[in-house]
Amino acid sequence: MSTSQLPDPKDRPARLTVGVVGAGRVGPALAASLQLAGHRPVAVSGVSEASRRRAAQLLPDVPVVPPAEVLRRADLVLLTVPDDTLPGLVEGLAETGAVRPGQLLVHTSGRYGAKVLDPALRAGALPLALHPAMTFTGTPVDVQRLAGCSFGVTAPDELRLAAEALVIEMGGEPEWIAEERRPLYHAALALGANHLVTLVAQSMELLREAGVEAPDRMLGPLLGAALDNALRSGDAALTGPVARGDAGTVAAHVAELRRHAPQTVAGYLAMARATADRALAHGLLKPELAEDLLGVLATGTNGAEGDAR
Fold first, then answer.
1. Please, are residues 147 and 122 in contact by the beta-carbon 8 Å criterion?
2. 2 φ/ψ angles, rounded to the nearest 5 degrees
3. What count of other Cβ atoms lies within 10 Å of the Cβ of residue 76?
4. Residue 270's closest CA among 305, 243, 298?
């Protein structure tokens, strides 16, 4: 749904009091975004000193209280805790009577859909799963990044319009995800975003080892172009020695990595195998060149030196 296609006013949530359970990087940013849309943050819970600092920065003057008190004060409660913590938290809140009938209970886990909120549903709450497909820093810049950010939305059919309206009010784009597809959806995002950070960090370390003084400045234009090409063209954007079938170059890479950064070899080989498979399937890697390349990748040999172009 485009942000230009705003819901009919009768479908928009009324101005709500907002609470946050779990002042990690996500919750305070979402609450601050809802505040910009006219809702009123009234309570936040956080245990660590870092979470309290984030809450103070993004939600100044909002009191820090225990989770049960957050639910007592708020019409809309954001449960922004780690995935593995969420089921137990929901069960505990429901069992202790903290959940109120008619209360909007929103979790931001990518892994779970609305069913994880079933204990609260039985207590009369209205369950919504709203997962922002964004990486968060825990600083005010996160609120700005929500503009145009996709949210994975899962909710009962009767709450779909309310869920989508809340996302749009935060500046996001709602994307409906079926309950049974949530784990696959989340795995896809982790594969693309979380692993990207690891790859870029490793690349920067290797460039420093190679004598590059500003690896971020070198990688910025290259990675930006590669990402843009991949988003536009998919596998057709594959380039480099693996896609070309340059087995000698790949062997040289493996040899250098074994010498200077052995902890990166397994990841390099795994990504190279995946790249080779995709390049073969899409006709980019010539079959007659693939045999030697796949042999290098299978053995992880540090054979012939090559010229990395």
1. no
2. -75, 150
3. 24
4. 298
Q: How far is CA 33 from the centre of its chain?
A: 18
How large is the average pLDDT for residues 259-280?
A: 95
Percent with pLDDT over 70 in the chain: 93
Residue with tokens 């006709």: 283
Question: Within 13 Å of residue 229, how many CA atoms lie on the same side as its CB?
Answer: 11
Residue 87: name the closest of 126, 125, 48, 113 by CA: 113
CB atoms within 10 A of CB 192: 12
Structure tokens belonging to residue 110 = 């990518």
Q: Which two tokens stand for residue 128?
A: 């919504």
Task: Tell me which long-range contacts 292-298 makes (C-beta under 8 A, separation of at least 24).
Answer: 292/245, 292/247, 293/242, 293/245, 293/246, 293/247, 293/250, 295/247, 296/247, 296/250, 296/251, 296/254, 297/250, 297/269, 297/272, 297/273
**Sequence letter at residue 226:** A
User: Residues 48-54: contacts with CB within 8 Å, 24+ apart?
Assistant: 50/138, 51/22, 51/23, 51/24, 52/23, 54/23, 54/24, 54/25, 54/28, 54/138
Contacts of 277 (CB under 8 A, 6+ apart): none
pLDDT of residue 63: 96
The predicted model scores a pTM of 0.85
**Helix or strand run (H / E) with residue 176:** strand 173-176
pLDDT at 305: 39
Give tens-digit pLDDT for 129-184. 999 999 999 999 999 999 999 999 999 999 999 999 999 999 999 999 999 999 99
Long-range contacts of 45-48 (CB under 8 A, 24+ apart): 45/19, 45/20, 45/21, 45/69, 45/70, 46/22
